[in-house]
Design goal:
The chain is mostly beta strands. About 10% of the residues lie in helices and about 35% in strands.
Length: about 240
């Protein structure tokens, strides 16, 4: 019987363009493990700790750091060096008490931005799927590959729920609707924040459009609600460009 081998390395020249790497300095990169974020918009935790946060120069050093159990993603300890991290994940180094949130910069690249202690235990996640299960409850699927079961009936596809970590308890809801503040995760204005002026629902197979008060539009998939007239989730967006340099 032929055994399927798991590929844990990728040529650096073939690594997703959303990951900032010196592509000609070394030949190999690390393949993020499947199951959470898709490969296009994610990186292995080893890449984040070594090439972004500079916690070690070599894979062996980062493996030792992970084995110490001091690295947490969304409030849970991670030791797998290929563990996938992506947009909105919160990475905490318990030894130093520092936390970082993964965001997109103005060039559409993933960058870790230092997060405040007051925000490090919260995570906005976008609803990408919803269906009713036995008992009348709803199962929600999120953009980061996670899912949860809830009694709430006011959550729809495209909305963003704010979770308290690590319990995954819903503490707020940001609707995809007129007046909502959104963070753009793709397109020409990726990494920007804007306010929804209106939403055009297409009757054809074309993607729905979101019109923004700032004078431009984008497809609805790129609009990630982070606030409404009642409340908002603060993102350290002003620091993104400095991190990416």
């Amino acid at each position: 019987m032929k055994v399927r081998q798991t590929i844990n390395r990728t040529k650096r020249m073939m690594v997703s363009k959303t990951v900032i790497l010196p592509r000609k300095e070394y030949f190999w990169g690390v393949t993020p493990r499947e199951g959470r974020h898709n490969k296009t918009n994610s990186m292995a935790i080893l890449t984040l700790l070594r090439d972004y946060l500079k916690l070690g120069d070599k894979e062996r050093e980062i493996t030792r750091v992970l084995n110490e159990g001091i690295v947490l993603v969304d409030g849970k300890t991670v030791k797998d060096r290929r563990f996938s991290v992506g947009f909105m994940d919160v990475i905490t180094i318990s030894k130093t008490g520092e936390s970082y949130r993964i965001l997109f910069d103005m060039k559409g690249r993933l960058v870790p931005v230092k997060e405040t202690a007051g925000n490090a235990d919260k995570k906005p996640v976008k609803v990408t799927g919803k269906h009713t299960i036995a008992g009348g409850k709803d199962q929600l699927a999120f953009h980061d590959g996670q899912n949860m079961i809830t009694d709430r009936k006011d959550v729809q596809n495209g909305d963003v729920v704010l979770l308290k970590l690590p319990e995954k308890e819903i503490v707020d809801l940001f609707k995809l609707q007129q007046g909502s503040k959104v963070f753009l995760t793709g397109g020409r204005h990726v990494g920007s924040t804007a306010t929804i002026k209106g939403i055009e629902v297409k009757e054809s197979s074309a993607r729905n459009l979101v019109y923004l008060e700032e004078g431009y539009s984008t497809v609805v998939d790129y609009a990630f609600p982070i606030g409404n007239q009642r409340s908002a989730f603060h993102l350290p967006a002003a620091e993104i460009d400095e991190v990416a340099k």
